[in-house]
Amino acid sequence: MTDISTQTVTVNFKLALGDGIFDASATVPEGKCNLTEILPVLQSLDSSLLSAVAEDLNEAGLSISCKAGCGACCRQMVPLSLFEAEALAAWIATLDPDTREILAQRFHQSLLKLSSAGLIDRLVSDDWLADTDSARQLTIDYFYQGVPCPFLQDESCSIHPIRPLICREYLVTSDPRHCADPAALQIDPVPLPLNFSRVLNHMGAELEAGSHGWIPLVFLFAWMESGAHPGAAFSGTGPEVLYEFVRRMEFAGKPSRKEPETPARAAP
Q: Which of 17, 140, 167, 219 lies at 20 to 30 Å from 122 by C-alpha?
């Protein structure tokens, strides 16, 4: 990773999302950094957007059902962006060897169970974010295996402060008991004007032709063996890297518009 500047600068911006305006500010490194290194900034921006959505729900007489200790959704498939995979790999590297080995065994056991159920090949070959019957069936089949996220401890997320964006964005207003069987019971997901996680996935997909831009979270330890550093593909000063993300946010919030062309990126 780059040597992140200790000097910071605050960037203010407004973005039209649906019928509203996302008025935000972010403090980023003044000097050189890359997309993976500003993930904390994106997580903070995402939290701000989700807080605004929660306030709108409260005004409509609804409330988000998700609470600490409710880990039903942590048995669903989690598409992890390449940049978040890189950040989690760096975090795992800071763990003491015994803790890292315990975590590695959890990932290994998850893969063994999925393999015995015949799901590994489908996870590799299918785009399970696609709006297709086969993708929906794969999601259901995975959930019914009851494989918990390797980061789940005592039905709570052990990496909650640095959890993936898609986990932050999966919110419901329905009875939390229904999450135990989302295929059979009524689930009311919270509609969002923009999914930051999808923007990251799109940026990851720009790095390699045919790539989804994400990996199944359960593949994280295997992916770490590659030593990949995808964040370096989007590098520059803090404001420049944030701009690359924000301009894609704008187009993601307006699906009728064509995605912007990707400019030549700075060398890592």
A: 167
Structure tokens at 30: 């003044």
pLDDT (tens digit per residue) in 65-98: 888 778 888 999 999 999 999 999 999 999 999 9
Question: Helix axis angle, 238-252 relative to 196-205, nearest 10°?
Answer: 110
Output the pTM of the full model: 0.88
Reported as a single tens digit per residue, the pLDDT across 210-228 is: 788 999 999 999 999 999 9
The residue extents of the domains of the chain are: 8-252
User: What per-residue confidence (pLDDT) applies to 4?
Assistant: 61
Query: Are residues 29 and 237 in contact, defined by beta-carbon separation less than 8 angstroms?
Result: yes
Residue ranges of alpha helices (H) inside the chain are 39-59, 82-93, 97-116, 120-125, 133-144, 165-169, 196-205, 220-224, 238-252
Check residue 267 and give its pLDDT: 33
Question: From CA 45, how far away is CA 49, in angstroms rounded?
Answer: 6
Query: With contact defined as beta carbons under 8 Å apart, do 38 and 147 qualify?
Result: no
Distances (CA, A) of 147 to 74, 114, 127, 151: 8, 8, 19, 11
Cα 198 versus chain centre, distance: 8
